[in-house]
Amino acid sequence: MKFNIALLAGDGIGPEVINEAVKVSDAIAKKFNHEITWTPALTGACAIDAVGVPYPDETHEICMAADAVLFGAIGHPKYDNDPSAPVRPEQGLLLMRKKLGLFANVRPTFTFPSLIDNSPLKRERIEGTDLVFLRELTGGIYFGEKGRKDGGETAFDNCVYTRVEVQRLAKKGFELAMTRSKKLCCVDKANVLETSRLWRETVQAMEKDYPEVAVSYEFVDAVAMRLVQWPNSYDVLITENLFGDILTDEASVISGSMGLMPSASVGEHTSLYEPIHGSYPQATGLNIANPLATVLSAAMMFEDAFGLKEEAEAIRAVVNKSLEQGIVTEDLVVKGAKPYSTSEVGDWLVANL
């Protein structure tokens, strides 16, 4: 099979971790007789520096023409530390989601047997954790009207959702639950927010179409608490943009490192695959960033975008092998052991596929 993949390395450690995912993907393609054409494109701070906008039209055209998008990370301190910056890297990410119609962010959280004691949570609380968040990506407070008034002394950000936006995300949640343990949790704040009441009533109305799925409804603050108490009590969770952004970062550290969790953004056009971590600017160019989340994102791409489960399982197997044998970057290294560099981990994965 032949694939055209848009390669958006982005900022910070993005190019470094993307490079290792490309090496692994090329090795898998060679092993299974596939052919990959990589098409690089700019997004984020590097795109602002080059052409003045964080998601150029040329990048969008490349993404639309691709079979999938492999994405690194965006963000730079010079924008983070300047609240008045008129153009920001994150605007490119939001625009990309909107223009590509990427309305559902799929974020799994699972544990690795060899790293169970790396987690900040006790072993007995997290063993068996295997959950998936579906976060709505193109609505809510991130896309609502925002601004200042009263001479800049008052700021506002409006949270707006339509029933259709909730339905399409919930549909994916129900469908995913049917392939797993048939449990679905709708996360909201319906005791306070009108948008959450719309979420809850919309999901309730859809229950009849999926009678085999057991649906629960929980407030976001309760879920935040239970994620650190008994994360293995959850399976599939659906929620709105802001809540999902926060909860998925909380869930990500259950595994022991934010550098381990992959994600996918899917919807109307080309699907995008990316690690959940940020651009980690402090580590840029140091060759110390953990590439495994990006490599596992490539595995998601092979399975979900291309339907190649065997190839995806081969990537996951070699990642598990690297963890078991301690071929890891400094964020995962056991005290007294030698940390491997970003590129050394990638080289080891390729050599052991």
Outline the secondary-structure elements.
Layout: E1 2-10, H1 14-31, E2 35-40, H2 45-51, H3 57-65, E3 68-73, H4 77-80, H5 89-100, E4 104-110, H6 123-126, E5 130-136, E6 146-149, E7 154-157, H7 163-179, E8 183-188, H8 194-206, E9 214-219, H9 220-229, E10 236-239, H10 241-252, E11 262-266, E12 272-275, H11 292-305, H12 309-324, H13 342-352
Parallel strand pairs: 1-2, 1-3, 3-12, 5-10, 8-9, 8-10
Antiparallel strand pairs: 4-5, 4-11, 6-7, 11-12
Helix pairs in contact: 1-11, 1-13, 7-8, 9-10, 11-12, 12-13
GO cellular component, one term: cytosol
Cofactor: Mg(2+); Mn(2+)
Site (Important for catalysis): 142, 189
Describe the structure.
This protein is of the alpha/beta class and 353 residues long. It folds into 2 domains: 1-103 and 257-352, 3-Layer(aba) Sandwich (Isopropylmalate Dehydrogenase); 116-255, Isopropylmalate Dehydrogenase (3-Layer(aba) Sandwich), CATH 3.40.718. The protein has 13 helices and 12 strands. The strands form 2 sheets. Strands 2-1-3-12-11-4-5-10-8-9 form a 10-stranded mixed beta sheet, with helices on both faces. A two-stranded antiparallel ribbon has the order 6-7. The radius of gyration is 20 Å and the shape is globular. 46% of the residues are buried. The model has no long low-confidence stretch (mean pLDDT 95).
